[in-house]
């Protein structure tokens, strides 16, 4: 039905049926899938950066955040060497590990099978 303005209008006799409900659910599911496909990664990156910046005492550069996310858990100083490309420079490796520990992003494992390795805290 149309009202006097030419807009569509539902009267008192209008009722939804199972097809209307199925169509509404299909549209809602498609919208959710679209959001997850296109925006889930962006949202996760945003909240990961926010969490790390909240925990960290200093503001980490984008490259440091990306490499930290790519490190296995637990990881060794050799993994840090390969990930950051220090070419075996022990002072650079241990400096990076010390900064990450001071920022509260990693912790050295003291006991167990992985003793001497590091674990990510975020």
Strand line-up in the sheet with most strands: 1-2
- The radius of gyration over CA amounts to 26 Å
Shape: elongated
Could you tell me how far the N terminus lies from the C terminus, measured between alpha carbons in angstroms? 58 Å
Number of domains: 1
Beta-strand content bin: under 5%
- Shape-level CATH architecture: Orthogonal Bundle
Quantity of strands, as a count: 2
Round the mean pLDDT to the nearest integer and report it. Answer: 83
Considering DSSP H and I runs of 4 or more, what fraction of the residues is helical? 55-70%
Number of helices: 4
Structural class: mainly alpha
CATH hierarchy, class: Mainly Alpha
- Run of helices and strands: HHHHEE
Low-confidence stretches: none
Oligomer: single chain
CATH topology-level fold name = Arc Repressor Mutant, subunit A
Sheet with most strands: 2 strands, antiparallel
